[in-house]
Specification:
The chain is mainly alpha-helical. Helices cover 60% and strands 0% of the residues. It is a multi-pass membrane protein.
């Protein structure tokens, strides 16, 4: 009996732990970390874009000269700051909201994506309905780029990329539009501008096997009689009092003495006959080139828009599903 009593006392002092069955969580770990991982990338990407935009503004000393921002919407650095800030906010709310299971941040993430999707659909519909208005705005923006070409290095690099690499065009409707710029206006020749009656190098067609592009290829191309300049005229030899040599021999000697000059003249004439200004620079305006590019790539653009919209809708659904899982788990606790 004492042994039984001692065992009973020991059981009371050290009760055997009860095994509890852990209930499965209502929150999907796969969904949680898919949202987290995707938005970490967006967060880093947005931070990089924002940093580049701020650096570009600081290089132009824009923060100390805010009065220079006459066309802030057309400033590439401002566009980078705007896009970077929006991407950073989306990535932050999605990343932290999913990791910390914060329903408020996930709700904000879903709302931002929904508003962004609505804005994209609105812009797409309005762009299709008001095509002429969009074209007029694009023309006005391009005119501002041309006027301020030498004043803003970001706009200069952007328009060079549009003309040389993307659309392979020159000006709005053609090279004559560069008369709007003070440096390229033909009247600037009077004040000593070497670029007068010319176009930027980005208007020039790249020659075959050209490694380093000639930055002066656009000089004087809009000047009247540009192609005839530089051609050499053959001068007749001096008159002799008595022609003692036969004409055949004299012709052979003259050809030998003027071989280089004749070759240059022949090449110049051949170039002038077969090499017009359109083969030197792009004559198509960038607005027309842009319209043709959109028409050629309409299917690709439509597919890209559908994919972007699908990804945004997927993000909204994922965020809302994770919120409902979090609320279901909280309901179990209470």
């Amino acid at each position: 009996m004492p042994a039984a009593q001692n065992a009973e006392r020991a059981a009371r002092k050290h009760p055997r732990p009860q095994t509890t069955v852990r209930e499965p969580s209502e929150i999907s770990c796969c969904l949680k970390y898919v949202i987290f991982g995707t938005n970490v990338l967006f967060w880093i990407f947005g931070l990089c874009i924002l940093t580049i935009g701020i650096w570009a503004w600081s290089e132009k000393d824009t923060f100390n000269n805010l009065g220079r921002l006459t066309n802030i919407a057309l400033d590439p650095a401002f566009v980078l700051i705007l896009v970077g800030t929006l991407t950073f906010i989306i990535g932050f709310t999605g990343c932290v909201g999913a990791l910390r299971e914060n329903t408020c941040l996930l709700l904000g993430y879903a709302i931002i994506l929904a508003l962004l999707l609505l804005a994209e659909m609105t812009v797409g519909i309005l762009g299709f309905v008001f095509k002429d208005w969009i074209k007029a705005q694009a023309t006005g923006g391009f005119q501002a780029f041309i006027v301020h070409y030498r004043e803003d290095p970001d706009q200069q690099n952007l328009i060079d990329w549009i003309q040389e690499d993307w659309l392979q065009c020159c000006g709005i409707e053609g090279p004559k539009d560069w008369d709007r710029n003070n440096y390229f206006n033909c009247s600037s020749r009077e004040v000593g501008s070497r670029e007068a009656c010319g176009v930027p190098f980005s208007c020039c067609r790249r020659r075959p096997n050209e490694i380093i592009k000639n930055k002066q290829c656009g000089y004087d191309v809009r000047k009247p009689g540009y192609l005839s300049q530089g051609s050499q005229h053959i001068q007749s030899p001096s008159d002799w009092q008595i022609f003692e040599r036969g004409c055949l021999r004299a012709g052979e000697e003259w050809m030998e003495a003027n071989l280089i000059r004749v070759a240059i003249t022949g090449m110049t004439v051949g170039i002038c006959q077969n090499y017009d200004v359109a083969k030197i620079i792009y004559e198509k305006g960038c607005i027309q080139a842009g319209e043709e590019w959109v028409e050629r790539n309409l299917l690709l653009l439509a597919c890209a828009a559908v994919i972007i919209a699908f990804v945004q809708v997927l993000g909204i659904c994922f965020a809302q599903h994770l919120r409902s899982d979090i609320w279901a788990q909280k309901a179990k606790w209470h």
